[in-house]
Specification:
This protein is α+β, with helices and mostly antiparallel strands. It is built from ten helices and eleven strands. Helix content is 29%, strand content 15%. The strands form three sheets. Strands 1, 2, 3, 4 and 5 form a five-stranded antiparallel β-sheet that branches. The chain has a three-stranded antiparallel β-sheet with strand order 6-8-7. About 4% of the residues have low confidence.
Length: 330
Amino acid sequence: MTSAAPAGGGRQPAGPAIPPPRFTASYQAFPGQPAGGFAAVSRLLLGRLAAGLPPAAAMVVCSPAGVRYRAAGGWASLGHGTPGSGSAGAVPAGEDTRFDLASLTKVVVTVPLALLLHQRGAWDIDEPVARWLDGAPGSPVTIRGCLTHTSGLVAHRPFFATCPDAAAIRRAVVSELATASGGPVCYSDLNFMLLGWAIENCAREQLDALAEREIFRPLGMASTGFRPAAGRAAIAATEASGDEGNRPGPIWGQVHDGNAFALGGVSGHAGVFGTAADLGRFTAALLTPDRHPVLGPAAIALMSSRQAAAGEDVRAIGWRLRPASWGNWP
């Protein structure tokens, strides 16, 4: 079934007057899997778009049998800070709109690459991550500790505001290992910044090129990558004015994360742009581990097994398990 409707009414964000966005959705029933519940998901998304937050949404639900639900709509840009703002400056969003995937970079790029190197015997995830980082101080923190956020590293530091260039950021992050010796779960960007550089040193190739060859291309993720070359009309703006990196005007077509931006747009913790459809391809492949084109069943089993927990934050390799606090979806 397919539907298209204006998400009219409700409150729009402050700024140019924008007409109601359009929204399309399709869903399919499979044997033993009725599709009726997806009407409630459509109503939820329509309600959010009508209220103006988020301005755009795209969603795909997969099962081993195939795509069960897809929806997209809203505005990729509301015209803030652009010539001819208002209706003329607004850009509609659809299924082909690329979004800044932000921290999904961690599990879409860094985790599979780390496990691929482990699968090939290029490294062992239980060895110190410092082994693969030039100039790193001695530290017991392992690759697994970074993957499970149990390294003891702090959650975040605005290196972009204190370091003069990318090389200085790298030195500052690596130096954090001097005081890290493991600890309880603490979700940390620093873990995956270190992993990104360690992967590059182990594989002797840049992270963006590795991701393209080893992950995106085999999985058919043709609209996913770092530093997107597509025009801004094909990309969802992130915000009207940047709060990271002292960038004036709307953040649109560039990674929002300040540290990733200061590193040139490529990092193990953030920087990838992509579509919901491509994320669906990535997810669907994980649901059929015996046919995954990149990772073997053992690597996927390791990826999805419980490793550590702190209250409701239960961690697998990179992924969070049972995130009930993220909402009760229909």
